[in-house]
Every structure is written in structure tokens, then in C-alpha cells.
Amino acid sequence: MRKSNRLGCLTGSGIFAILITTFVIAGYAYTSGGLMFTPGPLSAKSGETLGGVTSHAEIGRNCKACHTAPWESAKMADRCAVCHAEIATEMQNVASIHGKMLHDNPGLSCRHCHPEHRGANANLTVMDYGLFPHEAVGYSLNGHQTTTDNKPFVCDDCHHGDISTFASDSCQTCHSQIDLAFTQAHLLAFGTDCLACHDGVDRYGDDFNHKRFAFQLTGKHANVICTQCHLDARTITDLQSLSQDCAACHQKDEPHEGRFGSDCAACHSIDGWKPAKFDHNLSAFKLEGNHTDVKCEQCHINNVYKGTPTNCFSCHQQNDQHGGKFGTDCAACHQPTNWDAVTFDHNKSNFPLTGLHTLVACEKCHSSGQFKGLSTACASCHADPAFHAAMFGFDCAQCHTTLNWFAQYNGPHPTFGEHGGINHEGASCRDCHTQTLRTATCTKCHDSNKPGGEGGGGND
How far apart are CA 173 and CA 164, in angstroms? Predict the structure, then answer.
């Protein structure tokens, strides 16, 4: 029997043919740069120069620039890192976009998001909505899970074919379908740059709560629309930089014309402008004593505040019991604590009270209720007594003082001369003139019945 030259089901010539074919294919693949296996042309879109080229298409037939053989330890991602060194560095930082993607998706590689061989004009970035950490770019997709027709969002819904840019009309298009009137009013109030304020977590959406901020919306503020305070706000900074004092919003409507300063809360509350509680001590006229119980309209007639007189007489003239005899300075005598507690300083008048005059009751001199124009002459109160016998006129002060009514006559005596005679110095007028100054007697001191005594009397 003849011995067979087959190797299994293959003959020697068959095996030889396979080897020749393999070498031919390998040689062609080597010489053509592996183009016989390419699924399509590389992207020709130009960018910055990396690895000496501006696009993948410039790599040409050098497949090894990106692809590795199965037996090599290096992977395709390692080839990417050679040119895209800054991305390779970023991938080591979990806080970066690429680092976070790898951290959340350990099996992720470059070609999951950056496929090639899809044509010269194809985009090099194709994002999977579920893989990309959108909040890393400052905008969360938590509030954008489904479209208005309940379909899951895809990148093109907002990026329109290029994820490196954002279609600014995307927000307006979708939200106009939800609420056209609100969207148009919102765009007019805050502008068309939605991303300047919104970050996808709806901090400024329907569930916005002003209580999270220092300025609480309570009372009448609770019903105020946003634009009444945040007029022409276009960014987050504009919203946050708004002054929180009352005058910032209400100055244009302030009826007091700045007379009470800018602290509206000193009188008004957020529950309403009225009733107001005014601290009168902040004004030029402080309320003291009985003034604290007076109603505002008793002084501020017809709600006139500016220019209201602060002198007493302007309010109390109609109740002036003195008929204007003391002028208009009520405070010279009266106090706001009690009108009856009069403290008139007579020393401020043209008749200061001295000596015994300080003990005299007011009505003793002002018996008729007259004060202004009253005579200050002594005789107007102290009529010339019969004792004087009309000898001295009405200048009482020649002999009398307010300290003592007893006369201190210093003039020359008609009988005893200038010094009153021997042993008569210090004698009072009454010692000799027991009845009137026109008659005198010596017997009050000198008894004529006594030895050496001399008595006498007679008229001056």
C-alpha cells in the first residue's frame, strides 16, 4: 500500500499554497501601511498641531501611529497619549473631566468617545449621554432627563452636532414649548444668555427658595416679582450684588424726601407701609413728657410733616391763658412734663427778685393776672405809708432794701445834723418818730421826771 503525504486533510501542496498566500497578504499589508484593513478614511478636520500633524488624516498610511499589534504590551490608548499628552495628564486627576470619566467608568477608553475611520468630515467626539459627567463643565443634567415629549435627552438636542459648542437657542426652543408666555417674559427680563444664571440644578427655577439667602422674602415682599428688585440682571453676579437696604428699592417712591434718612425699617415694617412707627427722637423735635401721648395729626395737620414749627407757641397759642403777655417762649416757664410745674426765672426779666422779694407769691404783685408791662417801681406795690407823711416821695430804695424793710436813712437829720447827734447814732426812726415822721418825742428814751433827764417833743 502506498504511503500518504497528507497533513490531516491538507496535502503538502495545499499547505505550501497557504503559506505563500499568507506571506503575500502580509507583505501587501506591510507595504500598504495596513490600508487593506481600514474601515474608512480618517478625519481631516484640522486642529492644533500635535505629534507633527493637525489632523488624523495627515498620518496617512502609518497605521502603527495609533494601532498596536496583539502581541504588544502597549494599547491604542497609549498611542493616543503620545500626541495628546495634556489629556493623559488630565486623566490622572479625578477632579478633571477625563479623570472623572475614567474614575466612574473604569473600562472606558479613548475610542469610546473619539471613534475614527468614519469619514473625512466626521466629528472626532461622539459622547454617550450616560457616560459624560456633564456637571464637570458647570452644568448639571439632573433637570434635563427627558424632553417635552418624554424622550431621553441626547447631546444633539442642545449641541446640534458639535459638543464643543452650545446652541444658544436650545433653551428658548424647548422652554417656549413648555410655557411660551413665561419664556418670552423671562428672556425680556433677564436676557438670552441662560447659562449666565442657570446651571441645571434649578437653583433659580420653580423650586427656588429665597429663604436660603440673607434677604428673606416675608410680608409684602413675598408677592413681589423678581424683576421689581432684580431689574436688568443678566448674570449670577448681578443677582447677588443687589443692595439689600430698603432705600435701594424704595428711594424713588420715598415721600419724605430724605428727611428721615435711609433706614426705612426704623419706622416701617415689611407687612405694610402703614401703620408706621416713627422714632421722633431721630428728628429735630424730640418728644418728651406729655408730648409722647399726643397723636401725630394734632401737630401734623393734613399729614404735613416737613416745615412743621417746633416752637411751643405755634401749637399752644389757642390755649395761652396769658394772652400773649409773656411772649411766645412757653419753655421759659413751662416744661413738657407738666404745664402747672412753672419754673419762671424772674432774673431773666427786667425786675430780678432779690432779698425778701424771692418769698413773695406771684399773685401778690401780679394780682390782676397782668405780667407784661407791669410797673417795676416800689411804690406800685408799696404805697407811701401814712408814717412817711409824704415827706420822701416814691423812691423807696433811698432808705429801704429788699433785704430789710426797716429804713436805713443816711441823710442829714434836721435836728441832730449829719450824724444824728451825740448818742443818737444807730437809733431807728421809730425810736423818736413814734407816730409819723413829722412828729417826734424824746420821752421814749428820756424820762423828764428823773434827775438829769431831759424830755421834750414837738414837731420838726
Answer: 20
